[in-house]
Amino acid sequence: MADDYRGQIGRLIRDSRQHRGWTQSQLADALGTSQSAIHRIEHGQQNLSLEMIARIGESLDKQIVSLAPQSPVHLRVSGGQQLSGSIEVRSSKNASVALLCASLLNKGKTTLRGIARIEEVNRIIEVLESIGIGTRWLGEGRDLEITPPERLDLDSMDVEAARRTRSVIMFLGPLLHREVRFKLPYAGGCNLGTRTVDPHMSALRPFGLELKATGGYYHAEVDRSVSPGRPIVLIERGDTVTENALMAAARNDGVTVIRNASSNYMVQDLCFFLTRLGVRIEGIGTTTLTVHGIPDIDVDVDYAPSEDPIEAMSLLAAAIVTGSEITVRRAPIEFLEIELALLEEMGLDYDRSGEYVAANGETRLVDLTVRPSQLRAPHDKIHPMPFPGLNIDNLPFFALIAATANGQTMIHDWVYENRAIYLTELTKLGGNVTLLDPHRVLVEGPTRWSGTEIICPPALRPAVVVLLAMMAAKGTSVLRNVYVINRGYEDLAARLSVLGARIEAFRDI
C-alpha cells in the first residue's frame, strides 16, 4: 500500500515537473538535492515528508497533494534591498495567447518557440487539449508543438479552464471557419469592470457570426453565405477585437480591410505569424490592415513571439522604485519609446544599446541600463493611448514611479472602470495616493515605504505594482494569493530574487 502511494505521488511530481518544462536536474537544484534523489522520488522509491512534498509543490508552483479545498500561493517580501545585475525580458504573454488561439486556423503542425510559461497560457492549453488538440513541450520545455485533430470536440471543452481566462473570446474568429454552431463559456480573467462583447460582435458579424448570450454561454451561429462587402470599421480600437477580426479575415476567401485596427505589439506579432501561414497582410503597424485571406490553411509553421514590453516596463519600474542599477536586456524598444521619453522628462538616468532584431525577424530590441535617479513629477497628467501612445497596461507602473518622484502627478486611467481604485492599495505601504474618481488618482511623492500585509488586488498590473512597492518598503511585507500575478508573469518573484530581491513564496498550512 505504501509503495503504491509513493508511486502515485512520484508520478504526480514527474508530471508537474514536465508540465513546467524542468529537467530532474533543475528540480534538484531548486530543492538543494541531487538528481538521483529526484529520480528515486519520481519512481516511488523514497519516503517523503509533508514538508518535502510542500517544498516540491512550491518549487513547481503546483499543489501536489491537496490538504485543504484551496491553498493559494503567497509572497513574503523583505524590502529595502538594492537590485543589481542584468535580466532578459521574456516572450509576450498577450502575443503567446493570441498565437495559441490562431493555431486553430491551421490544419498543419504549429510550433511556437519560447512561449510564455504562465497561468494564462496554461489555461488556454488546457482548453485546446480538452477539445482534441495535441500539445507537446519540446526540449527544455520552452517550445510548444501543437497538432490539430481532424475534427474538434467542442462539447468536451474544459469549461472551468475557459472561464478563468478572458482570452477564450478569441476563439470566435478562428472557430467561425470550422463550425456552423458552437458555444463558448463567458470569459473571465482580471476584474477590471465591465468588458462588453459588442465590439467583437460588430467586427465578426460581417463574416456571418451571430451570438446569443444565455445560460452562461455565448451561443454562436455562422451563416457561411455572408462575407464582408465593405471595409470593417472597428467601433473600439482594442487589441483582442483586432485579433479576432484578423483571424476571421485570415481564412475568408477574399480581401478584407480592417480600419481603426490596433497596431499594438501583440497584434503585430499575430500579423507576422499569419504571414507565415501564407496570409498576405498589408499595413502591419498601422490602423488600416488589408488581409488577403486563404480559405484553407494546412502548413507546418515555426514561429517565435517577440519579447513583452509590459514585462520590460515592470523590470524598469522595479529598478526605479528600489533605487537600483540594472540592465534590462531584449526590451522591444518600439513599444517603450513613449514611456522612456516620459521617464527622461521626469529625470531618469539610463542608457540604451544599439538595436537588434528579435527571433521573429521583425521586432526591434535594445538593452536598457537604468541607474538611481532623482525623479520629478511630470508637467502634465499621465494617461494611456492606443499604440503608439503610452501603453494602457504600463500606466499602473507610472503610479508607482510617480510615488518616488518629487511633486504631484495625476494618473488618468480612462480605459477601465475600476483599475485606478486598486492603485490606492499603495497607501497601505506609505504611499500618498488619492482617488479622485474611478478613473483618476493623484499621487504625491517622494514616499517612505513601509512594509505591511495586503491581499493581492484582482487586477494583474496593480498587483505587480504592489509587489514592487513591497520590495522598496522597509521591513517585511506579505502579498496574499498571487495567482493573478502568475497569470501574466513567468517566475517573476524568483527572477527578481536573482537580482537581489528577497522574496519567498509560501502556502498556508
CATH topology of the largest domain: UDP-n-acetylglucosamine1-carboxyvinyl-transferase, Chain
Number of strands: 23
Question: How much helical structure, as a percent, in the residues?
Answer: 25-40%
| CATH class annotation of the largest domain | Alpha Beta
- Average pLDDT, to the nearest integer? 90
Give the helix/strand class: alpha+beta
Integer tally of domains:
3
Globally, the shape reads globular
Count of individual helical segments? 18
Low-confidence stretches: 189-194
Mind describing the biggest β-sheet?
Answer: 5 strands, mixed
Domain HTH cro/C1-type: 13-67
Enzyme class: transferase
Subcellular location: Cytoplasm
Keywords: Cell cycle, Cell division, Cell shape, Cell wall biogenesis/degradation, Cytoplasm, Peptidoglycan synthesis, Transferase
